[in-house]
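Exercise 7 asks you to align residues with tokens for two separate proteins.
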Amino acid sequence: MKAGIRNARRHEAGVSLIELMVALVLGLIVAGSALTLVLTNRQTFAATEDMGRVQEGVRLAFELLNRELRGAGGNPCDGSLDVYNGLRNPGAAWYTNWSNVQGAPPGTAVETGPALLGYGGGTAFPDAAFGTAEGSRIAGTDAIEVKAAVPLSADVAMLTTGIASPFDADIEVSSTEGIEAGDLLMICNFVNASVFRVTAVNAATDTIEHAEGAGASDNLVAMLPLWTTGVPTSRYWFNEGSVVSRVHAARWFIGANGVDTDADGVADGRSLYRTSLVNNGGALGVSTDEIAQGVTDMQVSYLVAGAVSYVDASAVANFGDGSNPIVGVRLQLTLSGDDRIGPNGERLARTMTHTVAIRGRAE
């Protein structure tokens, strides 16, 4: 009887201490492996989401930059035309300073400004210093400035009856829709292209006025400047079929965005910004928009006509004289994620390069 009880107790005995410790160690190994796998997957997912968000913004930026750079200096008539500027002082503001003709036909100011202008990392904008305040350009990053004439709307306004007097008469167009007093426009045919300022719009008669003004961005005289030297004058007037379009000007740069990325109390975030020309109730000005957050650097190089390699802005000799010999632009953007999920606790970064051929200039 006693032997049976002892055998039963022997069968009911639990695991030993050694067995328990082995089981705990094995359990910890399995749990640790599972936790490591979960954390790794979570980090991978966060990294993918982080960079995907940044790259989506950069894809949009590249698309917009590509569109603007390809059309630099272009107009609906012929992008190779000389551009005359009829404003009193085009050089007073970067967004009005577009012309590539030196000399002074009637109503033409003598300043020249290229349609494509680059700024190296050590060259600040003439009207804005480097800074760390929100929206200010960061020192050491390149910037680029573009001007072109773009359609007013889906239906491009065209001269319907020409101008009775070739210089100072109102411009009669097929439609004044989308045109407002104060707009900066270009009128062109396949011989001339002239920049002027709208002083009044008459929707009833579909006419645009361009009177003389006293401000720097007003018309120097009421006459539209155009080239007539040595040729029959009437051949080069802006007659029926000439096109009226809007002057577009934009700057692209890396600026401070006011975000504290490392929670140290100092705003150190950067974004890609775009500043563009706008008409604010008849007054010309600019609007600055944040295009893509997390773009920490932009480097730009240029291919000059006839050259075999891209160079920095400082090596382009013809930026300042308005001849704009650039046929290609290479953009290099550096992206940085929001989270510190790199191997050493750093932010993930990636550099993307995009090359743009200037429409009508690249061979």
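Second protein for Exercise 7:
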Amino acid sequence: MSKSTISTFQLFAKFPDERAARKHIEEKRWNGTPVCPHCGSKERIQTRKVESYFRCLSCKVDFTVRTGTIFERSHVPLHKWIYALYLIVTSRKGISSLQLAKEIGVTQKTAWFMLHRIRESCGNDKDDDGGNGFLKGIVEADETYIGGKEVNKHASKKLHAGRGAVGKVAVLGLRQRGGHVKAKVLQNTTMQSVHGELNASIVEGSTLCTDEHRSYQGNKFNHMVVNHSAKQFVDGMAHTNGIESVWAVLKRGFYGVYHSFSEKHLQRYVDEFVCRLNEGNCKVHTLDRMDSLLRRTVGKRITYTELTMAA
């Protein structure tokens, strides 16, 4: 038996029902002492007759461990949510809503909603190490483009505007050597847009490794360039192999699991892959990675109406 992971059989034994899952989430969120999610009080909390419900005597509001999280107002039992978190953490290329629906016995519509709620929390990077969220040292930057190929589109949907990135959405990725990944969907890859993301994500004085794309020129970092168009991929310490490996996993998920990312929800899909990579050290036990994702669920909530309304 592996010391760094847990099988589905073991997971089901650990969380056989709603009560077991709720107790685990309460312990991880409150460490044994319920805290009111409305006013933050933990001194005057009363247990209600209905198990799992609490009342804050300071603000006179009832709450549960679901309140103020992605689980709020969900009718799906918490042990099914726990299994969904497990699948998100362990499925390297992601899991489709159709597959999740079969795994936990809900409708595809419900599974789709659950997955987007989890992705919403994936973007809630609390920086568990206590840092300021900035990348430092040697940072690799590269952009990729997500969308269908023109040649595969129906005639009525072809843009007839050229090849390459036409009709696709740009995603800028940053990876610290030996550290975290950040990725952001961009409206365009102009110098202004790219520099804005670089400045907002990287500590001044760091070394930036990129390809020869013009948008990276003139930045304020120690800039090292590899010329991909000239078939140069490594020049001493300069390369972008780390961030390109992120795109390799993202594209495998795109083509093999999801088949399509809508532009409206693209940032959430990107956040899912980035979160999994950042928390995906195989030396860290699967339960610890799940608990890290559980911490992200607090303070994040999105409704079905918000997900489905027109962009």
